[in-house]
Specification:
- By secondary structure, this protein is mainly α.
- The protein folds into two domains: about 55 residues, no CATH class; about 55 residues.
- The protein is built from three helices and no strands.
Length: about 140
Amino acid sequence: MTRDNFSSEAPASRSDPGDGFRATPVRSRLVWNRMQRDNSHLHSSLWVAPVMAIALIYLLAPLLRMVDAHLDRSVDGLGVAGATALFQTAITLTLSFLVFTFGSMLVAIQLHAGRSGPGRLERPRAALAKASGGVCGRADAVLD
């Protein structure tokens, strides 16, 4: 009774060209792993988007200045009324963004509170009352 695992013959090498298997060099696997790791890091980090935006601004600013010069447009000729309208627009956009952001946060907090519910809050109160043994009077009054 012989088993294949205990055979006296040496197993065929995986690098034999005749078996259809092509060995991948270790170096290419290491490069691939490094690229995957770096890609994952870039997707999960918060500094990439602002750095890319700054780089884009530095690249596009000269082009936009050339277009403005070609169209004979300038910001200097706005006057008081134009500057006021420009600043009011910027302030309105900023406040709208803040209202949207904080509104979204409130919705997220309410959804999370709905999942945790009051039933989950009652269990710690009962455990605290049981653990204190009534030494402090009413134990759940501290939590109210």
